[in-house]
Design brief:
Bound molecules: iron/sulfur cluster
Mean pLDDT: 91
Distance between the termini: 65 Å
CATH architecture of the domain at 306-425: 3-Layer(aba) Sandwich
Strand order of the largest sheet: 4-3-5-6
Strand content: 5-15%
Structural class: alpha/beta
Low-confidence stretches: 162-176
Largest sheet: 4 strands, parallel
Number of helices: 23
Number of strands: 10
CATH class of the domain at 306-425: Alpha Beta
CATH topology of the domain at 306-425: Rossmann fold
Shape: globular
Length: 430
């Protein structure tokens, strides 16, 4: 069999071949730092995955399942690896085998259904918003299982800017400054809404549309789009993710307009649709779709972005793993912050490490998730920002819940919301 065909047949496992066991990745791995156990490190898990591929261990082996389940999938081990190991691809292949060998835990199944099933998820999000508006989740926030979930919900509430103009309505942006008001050639961008972002963070979509409009984009809504499938891929359900991907390909069509995403987790998977649909009839359409996907900060950075009015705010930027490690996007968010005069970025030593959210991880591995979050909360207490900015719904909720539980008086916000506040203060939305 030709070498390429062999690699294809091995799926993501081939990406692990270059590991030379040097151990440079160990100190970048939050779960290894939490337990000190080699089997909770990238190097140890790579050995488990290799044994799984060779058939020396089975996919229902409790030791394999325990240590691969405890991986966040944060890919913090990839940028520090001198051999270029594609850890994330190996993990996805291993999780697909595990998912085929044992039923998904009931909690993961229930959460996936509640958060991503069209119809059902609409009802779940409506109930969550109704509870959120009472303010009760904020009072109940704490470190216990229920308290943490309440803190997560409380952290989805809109804060900051008072007026809510500029939402996408009827398929078009109605933010005050239109693309033609700017001395920039107008460009069309298609908004990817996602499931959790749309259900609980529609105010971030509104801010995204307004900020892009100021920068010369005409943002258009796309009917028929569905969940990206990232939560399914994390759970090993790649066939379910492929079905969602095919629906998104059909909804967004074959044009060449950029597809703008403000959730790092969704963006990372949407940019992998080519790989996800590899060996299927939709492979080349998936690759073309993936090439159009842009994080909102990438589109804004491509236009400057236009500077706003000063915001006298201390901000700790916590880059989501799926933006920094999976998409390798570091500079565009910083460029965006520089467009906000006076805003002060405060550094924290572990900003580049995972917060412990990781899709459904915070629900199904609460002990490890809180252990990973704890040092970050301690760093934030010391840095004392007013706002912790991060561009992913899971991170916004996880960090927000941690801040509330630790009684730290800072709120989480999406970076684009800060630019939106700055533009509002500058009078762009008059
Ligand atoms: S994954 Fe990379 S950094 Fe980690 S042990 Fe293997 S070669 Fe070394
Ligand atoms: S993906 Fe994250 S948690 Fe998993 S091995 Fe790599 S650094 Fe550790």
């Amino acid at each position: 069999m030709p070498v390429d065909a062999v690699a294809e047949a091995r799926g993501g496992f081939a990406a692990l071949d270059s590991c030379v066991h040097c151990g440079f990745c160990l100190q970048a791995c939050p779960t290894f730092l939490a337990t000190g156990d080699e089997a909770d490190s990238p190097r140890g898990r790579i050995e488990l995955m290799r044994a799984l591929e060779r058939g020396e261990l089975t996919a229902d082996d409790p030791y394999v399942v325990e240590h691969l389940d405890r991986c966040l999938g944060c890919r913090g081990c990839e940028p520090v690896c001198p051999s270029g190991v594609g850890y994330g691809h190996g993990l996805e292949a291993a999780r697909e085998l595990i998912a085929a060998a044992r039923p998904l835990p009931w909690l993961a199944r229930a959460a996936l259904a509640a958060l991503t099933t069209p119809g059902l998820s609409g009802l779940v999000y409506a109930l969550a918003r109704a509870l959120r508006v009472t303010g009760i989740p904020g009072w109940l926030a704490g470190w216990g299982r229920v308290g943490f979930a309440m803190g997560m919900l409380a952290s989805t509430a809109p804060t900051g800017g008072k007026r809510r103009n500029g939402a996408v309505r009827g398929g078009r942006s109605h933010a005050a400054p239109t693309a033609s008001d700017r001395p920039l050639p107008p460009l069309t961008a298609l908004l990817f809404r996602g499931c959790i972002m749309d259900g609980l963070f529609s105010h971030v979509h509104d801010a995204t549309v307004r900020a892009l409009t100021v920068n010369g984009y005409e943002v258009t809504d796309v009917p028929g789009q569905v969940c990206c499938g990232a939560l399914h891929v994390h759970a090993g359900l790649r066939d379910a993710a492929r079905a969602l991907a095919r629906r998104n390909l059909s909804a967004f069509g074959e044009g060449d307009e950029p597809i703008v995403v403000n959730s790092a987790g969704c963006g990372a998977l949407l940019k992998q649709y080519g790989d996800l649909l590899d060996l299927t009839p939709a492979a080349s359409a998936g690759a073309r779709f993936a090439a159009r996907v842009r994080d909102v900060t990438e589109l804004l950075a491509a236009r400057g972005p236009v500077p706003g009015a000063p915001l006298d705010t201390r901000v700790a930027y916590d880059p989501p793993c799926h933006l920094l490690h999976a998409q390798r996007i570091a500079e565009p968010p910083l460029q965006m912050f520089r467009a906000i005069p006076v805003l002060q970025l405060v550094a924290t030593p572990d900003a580049a490490q995972c917060c412990g959210s990781a899709g459904l991880f915070t629900l199904v591995q609460p002990g490890m998730s809180r252990a990973v979050l704890a040092p970050k909360v301690a760093s934030l207490r010391e840095a004392a920002p007013q706002v912790v900015a991060t561009g992913n719904p899971g991170c916004l909720m996880q960090l927000g819940a941690g801040l509330r539980a630790a009684r730290i008086p800072a709120r989480t916000r999406h970076p684009v919301e800060l630019l939106d506040d700055s533009y509002r203060a500058a009078g762009y939305y008059a």
